[in-house]
Design goal:
14-stranded mixed sheet, about 700 residues, alpha/beta, 4-stranded antiparallel sheet
């Protein structure tokens, strides 16, 4: 027992932990001038000048010059000059060198990374993760995740930026959501391009900086238009668009490709009606109007004569457009065409030709010759025969016969008989016309063409949805993983790459003389033993007579501190706090710090590469479909594979395991984005093909 008490006193002396007991309570400081002039309570300062002039409570400072002038409480600063100038700002968390270094009165800010939120002075509720994130911004309620994101933003509120160097060159802007590597124009925004003063705009880009979707503050949405191009319509799409479950990729069967720069729709489409009963149904607001219009095919158009047919468009009793045969048409197929004055017919596969006679006349000249004129072209004269007649007196005479025409009947005089010429009907007289969106056929019926309804993009929470069955995808939700401190043997480690330090091993033999800095002298040193009360009071607190400025100073002299728990496997724990209740629900850990630990750096070791999440990118990895993820979240209220809040509260948080799970979700999110990108690129290609086809059709009509 004597040996253990002496050993504990020597360790506490070297460790140098100070609990102020007079005007201040439960403060801990270590480092030159750390906690100097402090008047607050429940503060922890490690590092030169940390919490030097603090006058508030519950501040934690680790690093040179951290929280040197604090009058606000509940701040945490890890890293040299983190929150160095903070005055009355409260509830701030700064992790990284010079993070929130110039903050004076800003509150509720979270900065994780070197120089994050460095120039923030009065901005509140900003969250920045990554080197230089929100470096120059002085606004409020911004979220930035990624290195140098956004590096040049000077003033702006309520922005969300995710991605490395995202929102580059944006200097003034509020209410924006940027996802991916996005660089806006260095010049101010215009009606056509998003620039350095963009507001209320959503931009989604890939990691290479190619923008895929832009939703402008005016409500217009553009897909695949190019970087920073502002859409002029509610929805502008560059490329083809496919709508429908079977028309979009499912990972098993190939999808249908939309026409170049066009649209392919599976299922029914209603224009002016929400309940279409056919592939396309148009409901016009005015009775008798179809709503269908062909601009270049109207009533003034005269089709060529060879475009005749025996079929025409009509509508049935329910308004459906149908193809019907002309009345009294009994043949199954009848094709009629003409070239010059030759008519060509094809009836049920039997072809024939005939000359077209538009005008015919006959005349007999004085030489008893017949001349036939067809379409203004006279034939060669034909000599008519002379008929010998017997008179009453028995004599004979020769009289000329004549030919005449009445209507289409040709008659030869003197009993020569007659023939009837055929009557030709012009079957090319019908034509199509388009008035407004009403398509009509002469002597027939009309149909109303549909009016296009644009799709719209909307967001609910982190779900972005394209109307008319266009599908949806979820924007990622990122959470910061706190650093924790752990001890293995005499090595103390801060997670997330925070580094380690080794506690020294000290051996003191009871009953021997040990020189201790204090009121003694080298000639008459203190004797440390189980009965020695010269430097400790009966309750084990530090004797104020042995302190300097109420601080116990420990000089390491290039040595380590080692708390050896081998002699007490069941206990041997260190507790820092006001109530010595050792929690065991999360494991039999050797050290517990009430109120948390503030440090500059923590590094967590992985047992092997199997403890990281790169297996997500293996070919056989079973990536859960997004609709299944949505069902799971709706039912369980947390992500698949991630413990619930109740489980974490019960069992604690393993930083290495949780960081690996976070990386798994980030890698899964990357795969989802890649799938969406491939689908968008297919749509762009299809739309380009539709454009080419439309261009060819337009050229043919012209």
């Amino acid at each position: 027992m004597k040996m253990k008490t002496t050993y504990l006193f020597a360790i506490l002396t070297l460790f140098g932990v100070i609990h102020l007991a007079n005007a201040q309570a439960q403060n801990t400081f270590s480092g030159q001038n750390a906690g100097a002039n402090n008047t607050g309570n429940y503060n922890t300062g490690f590092g030169q000048n940390s919490l030097k002039n603090n006058s508030s409570n519950s501040n934690n400072a680790f690093g040179h010059g951290t929280l040197s002038f604090a009058t606000g409480g509940f701040n945490s600063a890890f890293g040299n000059e983190a929150l160095a100038l903070n005055l009355n700002g409260t509830l701030n968390s700064a992790f990284g060198t010079r993070s929130l270094a110039n903050n004076l009165s800003g509150a509720g800010n979270v900065a994780l990374g070197h120089r994050t939120l460095e120039r923030n002075v009065i901005g509140n509720f900003n969250t920045a993760i990554g080197y230089g994130a929100l470096l120059n911004n002085i606004g409020a309620s911004n979220i930035a995740i990624g290195a140098n994101t956004p590096r040049h933003l000077w003033s702006g509120d309520n922005n969300i930026f995710i991605g490395t160097s995202t929102a580059n060159y944006l200097t003034n802007g509020s209410g924006n959501v940027f996802l991916g590597q996005i660089a806006v124009s260095k010049l101010p925004s215009t009606a056509f391009l998003a620039g350095s003063n963009t507001n209320n705009t959503i931009i989604i880009a890939d990691g290479a900086g190619t923008q895929r979707i832009l939703v402008h503050g005016n409500g217009n949405t553009g897909i695949g238009l190019g970087n920073n191009v502002i859409p002029t319509n509610k929805l502008d799409v560059k490329g083809g668009v496919a709508i429908g479950r079977n028309f979009t990729p499912n990972g098993v069967t190939p999808s249908f490709v939309a026409p170049t720069n066009g649209l392919i729709v599976e299922g029914r489409v209603g224009l002016g009606t929400a309940t279409p009963n056919n592939k396309l149904e148009i409901k016009h607001g005015v009775n008798g109007n179809s709503g269908l219009r062909f601009t270049n095919l109207n009533s003034s158009y005269n089709p060529p004569t060879y475009e005749s047919n025996t079929k025409f468009l009509s509508v049935n009793a329910t308004g459906d457009v149908v193809l019907q045969n002309m009345s009294n048409n009994t043949v199954e197929s009848n094709e009629l065409s003409s070239i010059a004055n030759v008519m060509r017919s094809n009836v049920n596969g039997i072809s024939d030709t005939a000359n077209i006679v538009n005008s015919i006349s006959n005349s007999i000249n004085t030489n008893n010759q017949l001349i036939t004129t067809v379409n203004g072209v006279a034939s060669n004269p034909v000599d008519l025969p002379l008929q010998e007649l017997t008179e009453i007196d028995g004599s004979t005479t020769n009289e000329l016969q004549t030919i005449s025409q009445s209507g289409n009947t040709v008659t030869l005089s003197n009993g020569g008989g007659s023939i009837t010429l055929p009557t030709f009907v012009d079957t090319d007289s019908q034509f199509l016309s388009l008035t407004g969106n009403t398509l009509s056929i002469s002597n027939g019926n009309s149909v109303v063409l549909p009016t296009a309804t644009p799709q719209t993009l909307s967001q609910s929470g982190n779900t972005v949805t394209l109307s008319n069955g266009g599908g949806s995808f979820n924007l990622p939700t990122f959470t910061a993983t706190p650093q924790t401190i752990s001890q293995s043997g005499n090595i103390v480690t801060l997670s997330n790459g925070g580094g380690t330090f080794t506690l020294p091993t000290t051996s003191v033999v009871a009953g021997t003389n040990v020189t201790v800095t204090g009121n003694g002298s080298a000639a008459t040193p203190f004797q440390v033993s189980s009965l020695d009360k010269s430097i400790y009071a009966d309750n084990g607190t530090i004797n104020q007579a042995t302190t300097v400025n109420s601080n116990r100073i420990v000089y390491m002299n290039n040595s380590n501190i080692w708390f050896n728990g081998s002699s007490s496997e069941s206990n041997g724990k260190i507790y820092v706090g006001s109530t010595a209740t050792y929690p065991n629900v999360t494991g039999n850990y050797r050290m517990f710090v009430e109120g948390g630990i503030l440090t500059e750096k923590v590094k967590v070791a992985l047992r092997s590469s199997a403890n990281w999440a790169d297996y997500v990118f293996e070919k056989d990895y079973n990536l859960m479909p997004l609709n299944k993820v949505e069902e799971y979240i709706t039912t369980n209220k947390h992500l698949p594979g991630i413990a619930s809040a109740d489980e974490l509260a019960k069992n604690g948080l393993d930083l290495a395991e949780m960081q690996a799970k976070h990386m798994q979700k980030i890698e899964e999110l990357t795969l989802y984005i890649i799938e969406q990108n491939k689908a968008i690129e297919k749509n762009i290609k299809a739309i380009e093909e539709l454009k080419s086809q439309v261009k060819v059709l337009t050229a043919n009509q012209d």
